Write the structure tokens for this entry.
Amino acid sequence: MKKVLFATSALVLSAGFASAEVAVSGDGRMGVIYDGNDAQFSSRARVRFNLTGESDAGLSFGGEFRVDQENYSDYPDSLRSAARGTAGAVWISGTYGKLSMGDTVSASENAIGDLYEVGYTDGTFAGDVEEISYLTGDGENTDQGPNILYEYTFENFSFFASASDGSNTSGPAVTGVGFGIDDEGNQVDTASTAWNVAGKYEAENFWVALGYAEHDDASEITLGAEGNFNNFSVKGIYADYSDRGIVFDDVTGDTAVEFDKTYGLSAAYQMDAILLEGFWRRDETKGVADGFDDDSFDSFGIGAEYDLGGGAVLAGGIVDTDYLDDTVADLGVKFKF
Amino acid sequence: MKKVLFATSALVLSAGFASAEVAVSGDGRMGVIYDGNDAQFSSRARVRFNLTGESDAGLSFGGEFRVDQENYSDYPDSLRSAARGTAGAVWISGTYGKLSMGDTVSASENAIGDLYEVGYTDGTFAGDVEEISYLTGDGENTDQGPNILYEYTFENFSFFASASDGSNTSGPAVTGVGFGIDDEGNQVDTASTAWNVAGKYEAENFWVALGYAEHDDASEITLGAEGNFNNFSVKGIYADYSDRGIVFDDVTGDTAVEFDKTYGLSAAYQMDAILLEGFWRRDETKGVADGFDDDSFDSFGIGAEYDLGGGAVLAGGIVDTDYLDDTVADLGVKFKF
Amino acid sequence: MKKVLFATSALVLSAGFASAEVAVSGDGRMGVIYDGNDAQFSSRARVRFNLTGESDAGLSFGGEFRVDQENYSDYPDSLRSAARGTAGAVWISGTYGKLSMGDTVSASENAIGDLYEVGYTDGTFAGDVEEISYLTGDGENTDQGPNILYEYTFENFSFFASASDGSNTSGPAVTGVGFGIDDEGNQVDTASTAWNVAGKYEAENFWVALGYAEHDDASEITLGAEGNFNNFSVKGIYADYSDRGIVFDDVTGDTAVEFDKTYGLSAAYQMDAILLEGFWRRDETKGVADGFDDDSFDSFGIGAEYDLGGGAVLAGGIVDTDYLDDTVADLGVKFKF
């Protein structure tokens, strides 16, 4: 006794329904990942809920999360849950912009995003090295409960702001509110607010965006631009971090290595049903303690996709990155339902 | 490729569908909780499945659970799961009443319920102090697997009965059946049945209800009443517990403090789109061992809601309770989809 | 604001929708299990997603999983998840057969299946002793990530093949790809491929099937047949295992007991709305170390079902098995939505 969901919104609009709706969509993928030594099967199936409504005065509101984003567990309590504000998001939108709360992306990530992803696993087969390591948001500050993201667009200009609330939350998780525990086992209520502002200018064929973020002592400046010319598009991202420690001295706890810079470029070419994509990216780290040197890590990726229509895409990618010992590749199909 | 679910049942009824259906609805909320020291973001998005069917002879049946109620984990095995009978519920209903099984509320809670909840988090921001601490059901006896609830209404009178099965269940969790483990690590199959009966009389403007529950040595008598006059409604609840130990002597294991009584009153006033609500509640505990005194805990709450239409409500609440050091408050919007 | 899903596909087909769809269906059950000593309540409610699409060239694709199959947890990382390929499945199907990936059944299980299940819990009340213990697939090799299953039918003949990928996966679980950990704590990438081929011949009133599987040193030959005559159907299964160790010497690690053979027979009789079912099954084990003898385990089950219509079935079963000390039984209703 299967229930079939209607796939058109025309019918819905014409029949005068109440405005509040739950839309159900899905995605899937199946194929083979070459991990440098072996070929491994990799597949998944997911379902997403998209909640939308409108108030009497015309304010839009909604929320969204996937079934697999609802994975709460008492132990460890770090797992994310849409019902607890640390996965998915809810939002409200009107003349004055859109405000989202939950596991939102940061202002800079919303404005600039990542390099183009390759392969049927959208880069996951190589550890998602096309993704920029944004300092705040998108899973970075969930120990503070939900984050917020504000978006406002006026003609060609968009403004974005995001923040965490500066309070730890490992208490009554059902509200996303409570206390954290410090290194000595004491309850601590207060953390540093992670915040981020970004601006973007969009013209017909290109956009440029700039963002600034801070969390504790660390800060991030991100610059991004993308252009589309005929069937060709190119995107570049530059991120400069300050005081962003990633390796620490075991004894003193002092920072030993800082994440200093990321810059990368990606390009894509669309030819009928075929899409060719590639990216290059370099991460630079800085040794700030004795015996720790500066270092840099390069990652290259190329991929091709063939649109089979109806929501199915045949795709493959190859990535060579200093983060993995081997060149890795994937090949498979991805689906949208 | 989003699927939009239809929000009207008229269309469904007119088109002669099979009777078995899965309805998908959702809710969400976003806002700020003041925990006495800091303002913290708190948001959530949830989706609920409502399963309904009808047999050839006109017997109704169904079930319901939310995505976030399906959170099974091998470790700890205490997590609740609709697929294992310890969250959500299934039911069957006919001329002779309705029988539900799963994580059902108790007979008394079904008849009487709780005090009015305030705030956009429906009282959660203050630890849900408007909720009566019923002795059985609604998450209290899930170590015995599913509970049952029977409801029967004849004219103005309703009768309710609920029970656990008196057997522990930490065995093959997929059926909700198995063995529990006692303090010495032995498998024990038998627990005390937690049971509850309640009666309710409903007139046009008011109802009164009385319930009695037992679990092990503990028992509970609950009395509740609610009246509606013009735009004003008021509800009172009195609960008297016997032998309900809540603090125990570390050495002897004897009861040190018993939960003795709860009584409270709540009131609401509806004025067009505005709803004003408030409650007061007192819990009394009894010291039954040397060095443990009687005590009482007061909780007050007030709140206001403004219906924005379309399923959105702006709401805020303030609660002052002896269970928390500080006065706490919340303010935000809640949504129904 | 409930959303009602349409229960007919006629409307969907006539209105010319896009091909990609998400169908939502559900099931539930409630009743009482007699565990040999006590009667215990057992209930559940579940929701299933069925994803389907079609490419421009007529290739079908899809996926399916239940809400309760999405139960990922970092700890333990053994929990299964449709979003990580170790629960549910995705598939693609065309002229050349159907290829599934995920937590698929093995070729032999797909061809032959299990004995008839009895009771409203479909055999779960007795530990599912009607299920054949197939060597590969269906939850057996999830430590290697997703499995694959290939099915091809030509006239009355069907061919099935299934396999795991021969690589362990407790690494980056999001892709189902990574490294396992051996007994000494070292990362190991390579396991033994578990593979299985099977063939089946289907005539109007009966089918016969034969399968062969291998994993490490263990192998399995399975033979099954089923016939339907008027209202009567009968099914027999014979499985012969080689080198399938199930008990091991604590000191040397050598195999002490092997699972040697399973054979069983089940029969069913349908009379209007009533279905009568029964099965018998014997498992034989072989002692291969000093002090371990050969043994055999018999299991019997009988059951009856009464179809109430509309998706509801009243059912009960009794099972007597050497695996449990007591005769166990269940009685209840099961629902499809």
User: Anything to note?
Assistant: Chain C has a mean pLDDT of 88. Chain C touches chain A through 73 residues (CB under 8 Å).
